[in-house]
Write a structure and sequence with these properties.
Largest sheet of chain A: 2 strands, antiparallel
GO molecular function (chains A, B): DNA binding; DNA-binding transcription factor activity
Pfam family, one (chains A, B): MarR
Structural class of chain A: mainly alpha
Protein name (chains A, B): Transcriptional regulator of fatty acid biosynthesis fabt
Strand order of the largest sheet of chain A: 1-2
InterPro entries (chains A, B): HTH_MarR-typ, WH-like_DNA-bd_sf, WH_DNA-bd_sf
CATH architecture of the domain at 39-121 in chain A: Orthogonal Bundle
Helix content of chain A: 55-70%
Shape of chain A: globular
Oligomer: homodimer
Number of strands of chain A: 2
Distance between the termini of chain A: 30 Å
CATH superfamily of the domain at 39-121 in chain A: Winged helix-like DNA-binding domain superfamily/Winged helix DNA-binding domain
Keywords (chains A, B): DNA-binding, Transcription, Transcription regulation
Radius of gyration of chain A: 19 Å
Chain lengths: 152, 152
DNA sequence: TGCTATTATTTTGATATTGGAACTATTTGA
DNA sequence: TCAAATAGTTCCAATATCAAAATAATAGCA
C-alpha cells in the first residue's frame, strides 16, 4: 500500500473513531434522556434486554471492575433505567435487568448503531459486505495478537 | 442489507472499536514508556513534530478545553515529553513542541497506527482501497450530519 | 499616548470515572 | 461443621475534566 494512502486511511479511521462517542453523547443531550452518559448507555447495552446477566458477567464484558459497575448500577437504579434482581437459586448473585425506561434507551441506542452501519455499508452488495467483514476480521486479529485477552 | 449481517457488522465494529484504545494502552505498559497514558500520547500526537502549534489550537484539535490541556501539558513537561515555547511575536501565545523523548514516542505511536492500517488494508488493491475509503467517507458524513461541529 | 476591550493561557474549585483493597453475605466442600 | 471460595459492595485515592475567575499581553481607538 502506497504511503500517502496509508496516511489518508489512518486519518480517516482516526477521525471517525474519535467522532463516534462524541456524536452519541451529543445525541443523548438532545434526546429525552438527558440524565445519562454514553458510558451508562453502554452499560445498559451490555446488561441487555433478553436475559438477566450477573454483575460480574456484565463487568467482564465492559472490561471494568465489579466495584466500578456497582456504582454505575447504583446510579442507573436511582435514575430508573436498571433493576437488581436477586437470584433465588444462589443468593450471592445479583442479576441485572432493564426497566421500561431502560428498554426504551436500549432500543434508541440500537437504532443509532443500525443507522451508523447503514450509512457505512447500506448500499453494498453481498460480495462487498463480505470483503468489508474480512478486512475487519483482519484488524481484529491484529488487535488480538497485540493483546490476547481481547478474545471473547 | 440483511438484518443479521448488519448485526454482525455492528458487533465487529463495536468490538474492534473498543479494543483499539485498550491495546494501545497495553502496548505502552510493555514499552519503555511506562509513565504515560494513551490520552497523553494522543496529546503528543496532536502537538506533532513539524510545527509549533499554540495551546488553544491543540486543545481544539483534541476537543478538550484549554484548561484541561494546560494540566496535561504540565504533566508532559514534568515527564520530559513536551516543551513550552513562548512566541516572541505575540507573548500571549504558548507554542508547544516535543522533546527528544516526545519525538521518540510520537514515532512509536505513528508506527503502531501504520501497522494497524496495514493489518486492515495491507493486501488490498487500488480499487479495493478506494472502495474502503468511500465507505469511511460515508460514515464520516453520517457523523457530521449528526453533529455539524465534527467538521474539520 | 493612555485606556479599554479582546485574546491566550493558567489557576481554582467542583464533579465524575475508575481501580484496588477491605469487607459482607452466601455457598461449597472436606 | 466450619474454613475456603465466590459474588457483590463499600470506601478511599488517583485521575480527568470542565466552567469560571484570574492573569498576562496586545490591539485599537479617542
Amino acid at each position: 500500500m502506497d504511503f500517502t494512502t496509508a496516511r489518508r486511511l489512518n486519518q480517516l479511521l482516526t477521525s471517525v473513531y474519535g467522532d463516534i462517542l462524541r456524536v452519541e453523547e451529543l445525541a443523548l443531550r438532545k434526546s429525552q434522556f438527558k440524565d445519562i452518559s454514553i458510558k451508562e448507555v453502554h452499560a445498559i447495552d451490555a446488561i441487555s434486554m433478553y436475559e438477566h446477566k450477573t454483575t460480574s458477567q456484565v463487568a467482564r464484558e465492559l472490561r471494568i471492575t465489579p466495584g466500578t459497575l456497582t456504582t454505575m448500577v447504583n446510579h442507573l437504579v436511582r435514575k430508573d433505567y436498571v433493576m437488581r434482581l436477586r437470584s433465588d437459586d444462589d443468593r450471592r448473585f445479583v442479576r441485572l435487568g432493564l426497566t421500561r425506561r431502560g428498554r426504551l434507551i436500549y432500543r434508541a441506542h440500537e437504532s443509532f448503531h443500525r443507522h451508523m452501519v447503514e450509512s457505512f455499508a447500506g448500499d453494498m452488495n453481498d460480495e462487498q459486505l463480505h470483503f468489508i467483514e474480512k478486512a475487519l476480521l483482519n484488524l481484529q486479529a491484529f488487535l488480538e495478537f497485540a493483546d490476547p485477552t481481547a478474545k471473547k
